Structure formats: C-alpha cells, structure tokens
Amino acid sequence: MSKDRKFGLGKGLGALLSDSPDMGRDKGQSNTGHDANGAATSAGALGSISHIKINQVEVNPYQPRFEFDEEALKELAESIRLQGLIQPITVRQMGGNSYQLISGERRLRASKFAGITEIPAYIRTANDQQMLEMALIENIQRENLNAIEVALSFQRMIDECNINQEELGDRVSKNRSTVTNYLRLLKLPPTIQAAIRDNKISMGHARALINVADADAQIYIFQEILDKDLSVRKVEELVRQIKNGTAKPDGKDKKTAPISFQYQKIQDDLSSKFATKIKMKVQNGGKGSIEIPFLSDDDLNRILELLDW
C-alpha cells in the first residue's frame, strides 16, 4: 500500500480530528518519517498520516463500545487485505514507539485479522478527557451502537467531560430532546434496558415506556409487548390508557402491605443482581417469599447460572 495514498474522513469527524498540516513539520521533512524502531518521528507526524507498526498500538481504555460483530470484522479484514485500510486510525504517541488508540478500534481489530503489520494513523496529542470525548463522539456518529450504548456514552460525556445536555447535543449534532430521551432510557428497569440492548424491543417502544413513571407499570407493558408483539402505536395507546386510569396493569388493583426499608433495600439489590424486577412479600413473623420473573428459556438459564444451579 503506497504511503502517498490520500485518505478521507467524514466531514464532521475530519473537522474534529484535524490538525494543521504543517503542525510539527520542519521544512524539508517527510510527513511519514520513522526512526530505526519503526516509530513515527515527531517531525511531520502530528496532523499528517503516518504508518506505524500495528503491535505498537494499545487499545483505548475509554472505548465506549462493548461488543463488535466478529463476522463484520472478518468482512472488513478481507476488504483491508484487498484494498488496504481506506480510513486511518487516530492515536496519541505515548513516548518512543508506543501509541494509544483514540478512535478506530473496529479498524484496528480488523487490520489485525487481516494480518497486516503496519497501519496508517493520524498522530495527535490528547489528554485523557479529550481521548474520552473523541472516542465517544466517533462511536456515536460513525458506529451502529444500540440505544443503550448511545445512552451510556451520552451519560459518560456529561459525567466525565463536565458538559450539560445542550452542550452534548451541539457536540454530537443532536437536539436536546433527543439527548434527553436517550438518557431517560437509563432510568428504565434493568430487564427493559437489556431488551433494548438485545434488540428485543425498538427505540420506539422504549420512548413510549419512558413516559410511564411507575416501574411496575413499565414491566407490565414490556411483558405485553413481548407476549402480544405489540406495535409502537399499540404501546402508545396502552400507555395513554394507563396514565388516564382507563386501564390498569395486572395486579395494580390488589392491596399489598408495603415492605420495610430494609426489605426494600434487599429487593432492590436482588433486582440489580438478577437484572429483573424482583418482588418480595413479607408477612408478620418474618415469613415471606421472593419472586424472580423471567422472560424466556434463555433468560431463565441466565438466572440459574447466577444462582450457580
């Protein structure tokens, strides 16, 4: 692959990652200089494309994406074998011949699958916050993250980059209401979040569910979606009926004695552990029961593994 080949980035990301083409370059020096160890030289490296050894790049510890489709990676690897890597990765130089990935982990993984030894890269200087922000923005804009991964990325940018929702919207080119809707997904019960992550329900279903304040009602509607394959419009209608009081979730009209704070804490901890809505019923004298609902055979097997069954 020729080192003179030009590479292109998307307009938005290109503007985010670009440095001045003359940054760090002395007159007469090459853009792709390397020292004896194969590391890009500082002169001409920053802001230009260099070729660095792939085994000198460590992954970004701030990578927000948790799962990569292995088949898609293999397809990209085959494309890289035939055409080369069209879009460089972005790294920061850690010193000497060591680099840390800022963005492009999917391309890096696929290049390793392809068996190449050098990879084109933009070399930048970035502190940890800048690394996190750039990695999050690149993934949000350029990868097919599921809605929960997007929501988690948004929350990380707010928490760790010290920005508000409006500033976040500006940086990821989304309006504030869209950002807010994603963040509200993280307030749904763990069972529903897992279903969104696993594409068992759509973002449209999720947007309807977040308009219901009561967690038990959310679980009831969620179960109705799965059992009856409800469309988004049907779910929106059911939500309106519940909010207007013309429909009640099963069991909502039954009188149950509230459990104590201590039992409530145990119930919440169990719900978090099993990623499902645990229900505890406690009678006078300490007798009671614990109910662990499951959604499918796979979900039951997951719970049994947690119980070390």
TrEMBL record:
Keywords attached to this entry: Chromosome partition, DNA-binding
Domain ParB-like N-terminal stretches: 50-140
Superkingdom of this protein's organism: Bacteria
One Pfam family per UniProt: HTH_ParB
Region (Disordered): 1-39
GO molecular function terms noted in the UniProt entry: DNA binding
GO cellular component: chromosome
InterPro entries, alphabetized: Chromosome_partition/occlusion, HTH_ParB/Spo0J, ParB/RepB/Spo0J, ParB/Sulfiredoxin_sf, ParB_dimer_C, ParB_N
GO biological process: chromosome segregation; positive regulation of sporulation resulting in formation of a cellular spore
NCBIfam families, alphabetized: parB_part
PANTHER family per the UniProt record, alphabetical: CHROMOSOME-PARTITIONING PROTEIN PARB-RELATED (PTHR33375:SF1)
Similarity comment: family membership: Belongs to the ParB family.
Protein name in UniProt: Chromosome partitioning protein ParB
Species per Swiss-Prot/TrEMBL record: Pelobium manganitolerans
